[in-house]
Protein backbone atom coordinates (compact mmCIF):
# COMPACT_ATOMS: atom_id res chain seq x y z
CA UNK A 1 0.00 0.00 0.00
CA UNK A 2 1.16 3.53 -0.80
CA UNK A 3 3.45 4.76 1.97
CA UNK A 4 2.03 1.98 4.15
CA UNK A 5 -1.12 4.10 4.57
CA UNK A 6 -4.47 2.41 4.04
CA UNK A 7 -6.35 5.19 2.39
CA UNK A 8 -10.07 5.77 2.77
CA UNK A 9 -12.37 6.36 -0.19
CA UNK A 10 -16.00 7.47 -0.17
CA UNK A 11 -17.98 6.52 -3.28
CA UNK A 12 -21.45 8.01 -3.63
CA UNK A 13 -24.13 5.98 -5.35
CA UNK A 14 -22.01 2.85 -5.07
CA UNK A 15 -24.59 0.12 -4.47
CA UNK A 16 -24.60 -1.01 -8.09
CA UNK A 17 -23.38 -0.26 -11.60
CA UNK A 18 -20.37 1.99 -12.14
CA UNK A 19 -20.27 2.99 -8.49
CA UNK A 20 -20.01 -0.59 -7.31
CA UNK A 21 -17.32 -1.30 -9.88
CA UNK A 22 -15.34 1.64 -8.54
CA UNK A 23 -15.78 0.56 -4.93
CA UNK A 24 -14.62 -2.97 -5.69
CA UNK A 25 -11.59 -1.74 -7.64
CA UNK A 26 -10.48 0.61 -4.86
CA UNK A 27 -11.00 -2.05 -2.19
CA UNK A 28 -9.00 -4.57 -4.22
CA UNK A 29 -5.94 -2.31 -4.11
CA UNK A 30 -6.24 -1.92 -0.34
CA UNK A 31 -8.40 1.15 0.19
CA UNK A 32 -11.02 1.10 2.91
CA UNK A 33 -14.21 1.97 1.09
CA UNK A 34 -17.46 3.62 2.16
CA UNK A 35 -20.32 2.59 -0.11
CA UNK A 36 -22.93 5.32 -0.09
CA UNK A 37 -26.51 4.61 -1.12
CA UNK A 38 -29.85 6.40 -1.03
CA UNK A 39 -32.53 3.70 -1.29
CA UNK A 40 -30.65 0.54 -2.32
CA UNK A 41 -29.67 -0.66 1.15
CA UNK A 42 -29.80 -4.35 0.26
CA UNK A 43 -27.65 -3.87 -2.85
CA UNK A 44 -25.15 -1.80 -0.84
CA UNK A 45 -24.89 -4.52 1.79
CA UNK A 46 -24.36 -7.10 -0.96
CA UNK A 47 -21.51 -4.97 -2.33
CA UNK A 48 -19.94 -4.78 1.13
CA UNK A 49 -20.25 -8.55 1.51
CA UNK A 50 -18.60 -9.13 -1.88
CA UNK A 51 -15.70 -6.83 -1.01
CA UNK A 52 -15.25 -8.43 2.39
CA UNK A 53 -15.33 -11.93 0.89
CA UNK A 54 -12.56 -10.89 -1.50
CA UNK A 55 -10.39 -9.76 1.42
CA UNK A 56 -11.19 -6.05 1.28
CA UNK A 57 -12.70 -3.68 3.81
CA UNK A 58 -15.89 -1.66 3.30
CA UNK A 59 -18.96 -0.33 5.04
CA UNK A 60 -22.32 0.85 3.70
CA UNK A 61 -23.63 4.29 4.60
CA UNK A 62 -27.07 5.53 3.62
CA UNK A 63 -27.35 9.27 2.98
CA UNK A 64 -28.95 11.68 0.53
CA UNK A 65 -25.89 13.59 -0.64
CA UNK A 66 -28.03 16.13 -2.49
CA UNK A 67 -28.33 18.10 0.75
CA UNK A 68 -25.84 19.40 3.29
CA UNK A 69 -27.13 17.30 6.17
CA UNK A 70 -26.84 14.05 4.24
CA UNK A 71 -23.36 14.80 2.96
CA UNK A 72 -22.11 15.84 6.39
CA UNK A 73 -23.60 12.70 7.93
CA UNK A 74 -21.84 10.54 5.32
CA UNK A 75 -18.47 12.11 6.04
CA UNK A 76 -19.06 11.90 9.79
CA UNK A 77 -19.81 8.18 9.49
CA UNK A 78 -16.63 7.72 7.46
CA UNK A 79 -14.45 9.53 9.97
CA UNK A 80 -16.05 7.60 12.84
CA UNK A 81 -15.30 4.29 11.11
CA UNK A 82 -11.88 5.01 9.62
CA UNK A 83 -10.59 8.30 11.02
CA UNK A 84 -9.94 10.05 7.71
CA UNK A 85 -11.12 10.71 4.15
CA UNK A 86 -8.55 10.54 1.36
CA UNK A 87 -10.72 10.21 -1.73
CA UNK A 88 -14.21 11.24 -2.72
CA UNK A 89 -15.83 9.83 -5.85
CA UNK A 90 -19.01 11.71 -6.80
CA UNK A 91 -20.95 9.10 -8.73
CA UNK A 92 -24.51 9.37 -7.36
CA UNK A 93 -27.01 8.86 -10.17
CA UNK A 94 -29.96 11.26 -10.30
CA UNK A 95 -31.64 9.94 -13.46
CA UNK A 96 -31.65 11.12 -17.07
CA UNK A 97 -34.77 13.35 -16.98
CA UNK A 98 -35.56 12.57 -20.60
CA UNK A 99 -37.22 15.07 -22.91
CA UNK A 100 -36.43 17.21 -25.93
CA UNK A 101 -35.68 20.94 -25.89
CA UNK A 102 -39.18 21.66 -27.15
CA UNK A 103 -40.98 19.35 -24.75
CA UNK A 104 -39.15 19.03 -21.44
CA UNK A 105 -40.81 21.08 -18.67
CA UNK A 106 -38.65 23.63 -16.88
CA UNK A 107 -39.40 21.93 -13.57
CA UNK A 108 -37.95 18.64 -14.87
CA UNK A 109 -34.96 20.32 -16.51
CA UNK A 110 -34.05 22.47 -13.53
CA UNK A 111 -34.54 19.62 -11.05
CA UNK A 112 -32.07 17.47 -12.99
CA UNK A 113 -29.44 20.21 -13.14
CA UNK A 114 -29.98 21.11 -9.48
CA UNK A 115 -29.79 17.52 -8.23
CA UNK A 116 -26.72 16.70 -10.32
CA UNK A 117 -24.79 19.68 -8.98
CA UNK A 118 -26.07 19.28 -5.43
CA UNK A 119 -24.84 15.66 -5.38
CA UNK A 120 -21.35 16.97 -6.13
CA UNK A 121 -21.44 20.29 -4.26
CA UNK A 122 -22.45 19.04 -0.82
CA UNK A 123 -20.05 16.05 -0.58
CA UNK A 124 -17.21 18.25 -1.83
CA UNK A 125 -17.91 20.86 0.83
CA UNK A 126 -18.20 18.13 3.46
CA UNK A 127 -14.68 16.77 2.81
CA UNK A 128 -13.02 20.05 1.85
CA UNK A 129 -11.56 21.16 5.17
CA UNK A 130 -10.57 17.62 6.16
CA UNK A 131 -8.57 17.19 2.98
CA UNK A 132 -7.00 20.64 3.23
CA UNK A 133 -5.96 20.04 6.84
CA UNK A 134 -4.23 16.76 5.98
CA UNK A 135 -2.67 18.26 2.84
CA UNK A 136 -3.93 15.40 0.71
CA UNK A 137 -7.15 14.68 -1.16
CA UNK A 138 -8.45 13.19 -4.36
CA UNK A 139 -11.87 14.13 -5.75
CA UNK A 140 -13.28 12.52 -8.87
CA UNK A 141 -16.53 13.53 -10.55
CA UNK A 142 -18.38 11.21 -12.92
CA UNK A 143 -19.64 13.12 -15.96
CA UNK A 144 -20.86 11.69 -19.29
CA UNK A 145 -19.93 11.93 -22.95
CA UNK A 146 -23.28 13.63 -23.55
CA UNK A 147 -21.61 16.75 -22.12
CA UNK A 148 -19.68 17.14 -25.39
CA UNK A 149 -22.77 17.85 -27.44
CA UNK A 150 -26.04 16.42 -28.73
CA UNK A 151 -26.10 12.62 -28.67
CA UNK A 152 -29.89 12.37 -28.67
CA UNK A 153 -32.85 14.73 -28.70
CA UNK A 154 -34.13 13.52 -25.33
CA UNK A 155 -31.13 14.03 -23.06
CA UNK A 156 -30.71 17.80 -23.09
CA UNK A 157 -31.12 18.05 -19.30
CA UNK A 158 -28.58 15.29 -18.72
CA UNK A 159 -26.06 16.92 -21.06
CA UNK A 160 -26.53 20.37 -19.54
CA UNK A 161 -26.17 18.99 -16.01
CA UNK A 162 -22.97 17.10 -16.80
CA UNK A 163 -21.50 20.14 -18.59
CA UNK A 164 -22.16 22.25 -15.51
CA UNK A 165 -20.60 19.54 -13.35
CA UNK A 166 -17.40 19.68 -15.40
CA UNK A 167 -17.16 23.44 -14.91
CA UNK A 168 -17.67 23.02 -11.18
CA UNK A 169 -14.96 20.35 -11.08
CA UNK A 170 -12.45 22.64 -12.75
CA UNK A 171 -13.00 25.40 -10.20
CA UNK A 172 -12.67 22.82 -7.42
CA UNK A 173 -9.39 21.68 -8.93
CA UNK A 174 -8.07 25.23 -9.15
CA UNK A 175 -8.85 26.01 -5.52
CA UNK A 176 -7.79 22.67 -4.09
CA UNK A 177 -4.47 22.08 -5.83
CA UNK A 178 -2.42 24.51 -3.68
CA UNK A 179 -3.38 22.38 -0.67
CA UNK A 180 -2.75 18.98 -2.22
CA UNK A 181 -6.42 18.43 -3.01
CA UNK A 182 -6.76 17.58 -6.68
CA UNK A 183 -10.00 17.13 -8.58
CA UNK A 184 -10.59 15.51 -11.96
CA UNK A 185 -13.42 14.21 -14.11
CA UNK A 186 -14.04 10.81 -15.64
CA UNK A 187 -16.50 10.89 -18.53
CA UNK A 188 -17.91 7.46 -19.48
CA UNK A 189 -19.46 6.70 -22.82
CA UNK A 190 -22.02 3.95 -23.28
CA UNK A 191 -21.60 1.63 -20.30
CA UNK A 192 -23.28 -1.68 -19.65
CA UNK A 193 -25.18 -1.29 -16.36
CA UNK A 194 -28.61 -2.05 -14.91
CA UNK A 195 -29.63 1.51 -15.79
CA UNK A 196 -29.70 0.48 -19.46
CA UNK A 197 -31.68 -2.66 -18.80
CA UNK A 198 -34.78 -1.24 -20.43
CA UNK A 199 -33.02 -0.05 -23.58
CA UNK A 200 -34.14 -1.91 -26.73
CA UNK A 201 -31.53 -4.58 -27.63
CA UNK A 202 -31.44 -3.38 -31.24
CA UNK A 203 -30.61 0.16 -30.14
CA UNK A 204 -27.85 -1.04 -27.84
CA UNK A 205 -26.21 -3.27 -30.43
CA UNK A 206 -26.43 -0.55 -33.09
CA UNK A 207 -24.70 1.91 -30.75
CA UNK A 208 -21.98 -0.62 -29.94
CA UNK A 209 -21.19 -1.07 -33.63
CA UNK A 210 -20.23 2.59 -33.83
CA UNK A 211 -17.63 2.22 -31.08
CA UNK A 212 -14.11 1.55 -32.44
CA UNK A 213 -13.38 -0.78 -29.52
CA UNK A 214 -16.32 -2.89 -30.66
CA UNK A 215 -18.21 -2.93 -27.39
CA UNK A 216 -19.74 -0.81 -24.67
CA UNK A 217 -17.72 -0.10 -21.56
CA UNK A 218 -18.03 -2.28 -18.49
CA UNK A 219 -18.07 -0.66 -15.04
CA UNK A 220 -14.54 -2.03 -14.55
CA UNK A 221 -13.29 0.06 -17.48
CA UNK A 222 -14.50 3.24 -15.82
CA UNK A 223 -13.26 2.10 -12.41
CA UNK A 224 -9.72 1.71 -13.74
CA UNK A 225 -9.53 5.41 -14.60
CA UNK A 226 -11.07 6.44 -11.30
CA UNK A 227 -8.54 4.26 -9.48
CA UNK A 228 -5.70 6.18 -11.10
CA UNK A 229 -7.18 9.60 -10.34
CA UNK A 230 -7.59 8.60 -6.68
CA UNK A 231 -4.00 7.37 -6.39
CA UNK A 232 -0.97 9.16 -5.00
CA UNK A 233 0.53 9.19 -8.50
CA UNK A 234 -2.21 11.51 -9.75
CA UNK A 235 -1.16 14.36 -7.50
CA UNK A 236 0.05 16.59 -10.34
CA UNK A 237 -3.06 16.16 -12.48
CA UNK A 238 -5.85 18.62 -11.76
CA UNK A 239 -8.94 19.78 -13.65
CA UNK A 240 -8.58 17.10 -16.31
CA UNK A 241 -11.51 15.45 -18.10
CA UNK A 242 -10.78 11.94 -19.36
CA UNK A 243 -13.18 10.14 -21.68
CA UNK A 244 -13.69 6.41 -21.26
CA UNK A 245 -15.57 5.68 -24.47
CA UNK A 246 -13.69 3.08 -26.50
CA UNK A 247 -12.79 5.70 -29.08
CA UNK A 248 -16.38 6.61 -29.95
CA UNK A 249 -15.51 10.31 -29.68
CA UNK A 250 -12.02 11.77 -29.78
CA UNK A 251 -12.81 15.50 -29.85
CA UNK A 252 -11.81 16.38 -26.25
UniProtKB/TrEMBL annotation:
Coiled coil (residue ranges):
none
Q: Family membership, please give it.
A: Belongs to the short-chain dehydrogenases/reductases (SDR) family.
- PANTHER family in the cross-refs: 3-OXOACYL-(ACYL-CARRIER-PROTEIN) REDUCTASE (PTHR42879), 3-OXOACYL-[ACYL-CARRIER-PROTEIN] REDUCTASE FABG (PTHR42879:SF2)
Return the protein name: SDR family oxidoreductase
